[in-house]
Amino acid sequence: MPLIQINILAGRSPEKKEKLIFEVTQTVASILESPIETVRVMINEMAPEHWGIAGESVKKRQSK
User: Fold this and answer.
1) Rounded to whole angstroms, how far apart are CA atoms 3 and 38?
2) Helices marked H in the chain — which ranges?
3) CB-CB contact of 48 with 7 (8 Å)
4) I want to staple 16 with a disulfide (CB 3.0 to 4.6 A). Which of 2, 12, 29, 46 is the partner?
5) Is residue 35 among the annotated active site residues?
6) Separation of CA 37 from chain center
7) Cβ distance 38 to 28 under 8 Å?
């Protein structure tokens, strides 16, 4: 049973997340030759202040 975890910044629409789940599921099932019923996708949304790049939070970088 493939389990795919995706970490993204919060703020994307439910429609975009549904499309992401669908596309990732289809791609993984195809590449691994697994039934789509066995593919699991978990989206972890992170607040900008909880994600750091080069020593700064994304929130701080966005405010510049």
Assistant:
1) 9
2) 14-32, 58-62
3) no
4) 12
5) no
6) 19
7) no
**In the chain, what are the domains?**
3-62 (3.30.429.10)
How far is the C-alpha of 9 from the C-alpha of 15, rounded, in Å? 15
- What are residue 56's phi and psi, to 5 degrees? -130, 150
Sign of the four-CA dihedral 29, 35, 40, 25 = positive
d(CA 38, CA 40): 7
CA distance 27 to 59: 32
This prediction's pTM: 0.86
Please tell me the distance from the alpha carbon of residue 44 to that of residue 57, in angstroms, as a whole number: 17
| From 2, 14, 35, 48, active-site residue | 2
